[in-house]
Design a protein that fits this description.
With about 120 residues, this protein is mainly alpha-helical. About 75% of the residues lie in helices and about 0% in strands. The N and C termini lie far apart (about 40 Å).
Length: about 120
């Protein structure tokens, strides 16, 4: 639990976690997590929405899952995906065009420029 506390209390630690997540999750899944990260950092985001985002990100870091991916395979990822999706749907109206540009810049840096 100390690791979770450190990551959520320290933006640099959270950034490092997201980078590690990106390697496993791929570009599209990372886009959502990065958008949540930038929304949580925005001073205009209400505290309740920041709490929802941090709760969803924290759930990704918890050592125990509601549905274990070790036991249930891909189905075990469903609770993680659902948690992020619920948080994202709740706060997506806070995602600005500037946020999207920041996120695309990071994704291009980490995964290479996307072809559109």
């Amino acid at each position: 639990m100390d690791t979770l506390t450190n990551i959520l209390a320290n933006p640099d630690q959270l950034w490092q976690y997201i980078k590690q997540y990106a390697v496993k999750a791929g570009r599209e899944a990372t886009r959502m997590v990065l958008e949540l990260y930038y929304v949580v950092k925005a001073p205009t985001t209400p505290v309740i929405d920041k709490s929802i985002i941090l709760g969803a990100l924290a759930y990704q870091l918890l050592p125990k899952d509601l549905l274990s991916s070790k036991k249930l395979g891909v189905l075990g990822l469903a609770d993680n995906i659902a948690t992020l999706a619920v948080a994202y749907n709740r706060v997506k109206h806070h995602i600005t065009p500037e946020t999207k540009m920041q996120v695309e810049g990071v994704l291009d840096k980490w995964f290479g420029a996307s072809i559109q």
